[in-house]
Amino acid sequence: MTLTSIKTRTFRHPNINDGKKVWELVREIDVLDLNSSYYYLILCEYFSNTCMVAENEGEIVGFVSGFRHPEHHDILFVWQVAVAKSERGEGLATTLIQKLLKSDECSDIKAIQTTISPSNKASLALFRKLSEHLGANMVKTLRFSSDAFPGNEHEAEQTYEISPILGNGKEED
To answer: Which CATH architecture fits 9-172?
Structure first.
């Protein structure tokens, strides 16, 4: 007889008490830019409505941060998506974004924007999968050339927009 472990994940908007754990999660992921711990505290307090955490047995194992476009409030800019190594390969990143879109706070979102560097194949695959699941188009444009960043260490960032997002899948719950 083979025993399989069943993961019971919960999804919720973060609060300021989650900032430290979110920072620690992002720190463990090499391809993500690690921001200051203060940044994650601010995200978890002031941008909570456009962020989501996933927990497994009380531990934060996933995080998506975003904010509404300042001029187009129906566009959600997804800043970072972080998934613990132990949870990868199970669709958690896609589920996190879908749960965020289904939340009351994001029910009017019509498009998602994000920036991805060319070498970040995992993020590109995530957003392609999300676009397919939502039945939406994904369009790429150059956002920041590598010259826009200080030093010589940062790749160019391309903007990907996924739209239109219709209904946000709330009826699927």
So the answer is: 3-Layer(aba) Sandwich (3.40)
